[in-house]
Amino acid sequence: MNSTPEQSGEEHPAGREVVVSLSRCDTEDARTVFDVLATGFASDHPMGETPEQTSGPRPTVWVTTVDVTEPMADATPARLTAPVTVDAQGGYWAVDRLRTHLTGAFAVSVVGTAAGDQEQEVRLRLQNR
Question: Are 109 and 124 within 8 A, CB to CB?
Fold first, then answer.
């Protein structure tokens, strides 16, 4: 018998956290996306932090984790220099909440999904409205 209390959905960390990764985009666009996320959710990247570009032949990947449990503010329209591809991985409820938040700032389209039993990975394309 398992003595651990069951947690599901919003209560379990996997149900409320989303791992967001960006690659092959301008540093300022990465900062813009991270700032939009930080205005709405608790994030491991503070508002205004500029991601650092790495050197070398491989593309830089910027990663942040956001907790979508308690939205702090609605997103407002933001400007990108070019379309940005975002990979978001987490529970179904959490990824959907993240996507909804991003639609306050950008035109968002889903360009790919991979579904699991309790988590999903979604590739989103962000563009200016």
Answer: yes
The sheet with strand 17-23 has its strands ordered as 42-43, 61-67, 17-23, 84-91, 119-127, 107-115
Q: Positive or negative, the Cα torsion across 62, 29, 20, 120?
A: negative
The mean per-residue pLDDT over the stretch 75-96 comes to 96
Question: Rounded to the nearest 10 degrees, how much is the dihedral formed by the CA atoms of 72, 74, 76, 80?
Answer: 70
Measured CA to CA, the distance from residue 78 to residue 127 in angstroms comes to 9
Half-sphere CA count of 11, side-chain side, radius 13 A: 4
Give the amino acid at 43.
S
Percent of the chain with pLDDT over 90: 65
Confidence bin at 3 (pLDDT 50/70/90): very low
Residue 39 has pLDDT above 80, yes or no: yes
First-to-last alpha carbon distance for the chain, in angstroms, is: 53
DSSP label at residue 104: T
Distance in angstroms (rounded) separating the CA atoms of residues 50 and 44: 13
